[in-house]
């Protein structure tokens, strides 16, 4: 997703615009169908990262292809500058905005990732990032891999939804509220809300391996995509600097546990994350200099969270390795 805001002192994320759903029961004009759609993401973006992880865990790679926009974009939108000829090889577009305007020729809203594009028409079907991953879990079940985990178990949905809402307000979007605040009071409020929530989450996770139940759920996916970016960009670039993640023992161990779980760390490209935040947000970082740190080797150190029990995939199994074209550079 691209960070856009109102003219107010406090950061307010503009709502996404193309929020139709892709459904299995024919209740929308976009039916679930293998090979019909392409999921467009960017490695840099936490909101897109959620869909990459869920797609991996559920094994949807054979039925839902993935296009990867590069970390840099301009006023024309996310662009495919890492692909041959600077175009997505399936959609044939240079800028994601082209697919938005095919869906709506007069479109003037934010061009965000993730976006699901109908391949034949080249039109964005949805950019509803909050619903997308839930629909991958509940609408695409006919195409889940054998052993796919249940990331949105019915008996825990109310609890997952409650946690997700709090995490979204104070953590996922909270770091942006800090980074893009236009006044001290707004920044102070967002900063306190962020670290109050992180403290509460740390207390919750001190005695349980995962946020809800004893398995990985949608709640863990949504929290983790912010935590994994915390020290690389949010601590310094967004002034979220009370502590680094590596200085918060419970959350650091929890984050390493998931990083070392298939489907999580193998979706992360720290270099692209840094290139995006430090290279695109010129109002915050006008020099465009991308920092060399932090040292990433800590992500591979033992976390000890197995002692809390829990079954990461429930009755399921880990996903296999990602497709060759979707692999990220290993930490060395």
UniProtKB/TrEMBL annotation:
It comes from the Bacteria. Residues 153-277 form the GST C-terminal domain. InterPro entries: Glutathione-S-Trfase_C-like (IPR010987), Glutathione-S-Trfase_C_sf (IPR036282), Glutathione_S-Trfase (IPR040079), GST_Omega-like_C (IPR047047), GST_Omega/GSH (IPR016639). Pfam families: GST_C_2 (PF13410). Residues 307-332 are annotated as: Disordered. This is Glutathione S-transferase family protein. It comes from Pseudonocardia xinjiangensis.
């Amino acid at each position: 997703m691209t960070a856009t805001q109102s003219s107010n002192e406090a950061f307010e994320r503009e709502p996404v615009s193309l929020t139709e759903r892709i459904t299995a029961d024919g209740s929308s004009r976009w039916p679930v169908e293998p090979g019909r759609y392409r999921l467009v993401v960017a490695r840099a973006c936490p909101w897109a990262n959620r869909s990459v992880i869920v797609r991996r865990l559920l094994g949807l790679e054979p039925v839902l292809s993935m296009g990867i926009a590069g970390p840099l974009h301009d006023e024309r939108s996310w662009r495919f500058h890492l692909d041959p000829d600077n175009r997505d090889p399936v959609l044939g577009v240079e800028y994601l905005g082209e697919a938005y305007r095919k869906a709506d020729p007069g479109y003037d809203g934010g061009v965000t990732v993730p976006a699901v594009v109908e391949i034949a028409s080249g039109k964005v079907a949805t950019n509803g990032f909050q619903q997308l991953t839930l629909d991958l879990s509940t609408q695409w079940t006919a195409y889940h891999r054998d052993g796919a985990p249940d990331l949105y178990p019915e008996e825990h949905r109310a609890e997952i939804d409650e946690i997700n809402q709090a995490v979204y307000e104070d953590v996922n979007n909270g770091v942006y509220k800090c980074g893009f605040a236009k006044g001290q009071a707004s920044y102070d409020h967002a900063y306190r809300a962020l670290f109050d929530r992180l403290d509460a989450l740390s207390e919750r996770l001190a005695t349980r391996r995962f946020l809800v139940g004893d398995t990985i759920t949608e709640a863990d996916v949504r929290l983790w995509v912010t935590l994994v970016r915390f020290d690389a960009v949010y601590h310094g670039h967004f002034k979220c600097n009370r502590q680094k993640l590596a200085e918060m023992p419970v959350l650091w161990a929890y984050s390493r546990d998931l990083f070392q779980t298939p489907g999580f760390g193998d979706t992360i490209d720290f270099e692209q994350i840094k290139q995006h935040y430090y290279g695109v947000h010129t109002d915050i970082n006008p020099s465009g200099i991308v920092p060399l740190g932090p040292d990433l080797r800590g992500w591979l150190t033992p976390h000890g969270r197995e002692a809390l029990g829990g079954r990461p995939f429930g009755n399921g199994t880990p996903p296999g390795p990602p497709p060759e074209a979707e692999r990220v550079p290993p930490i060395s």
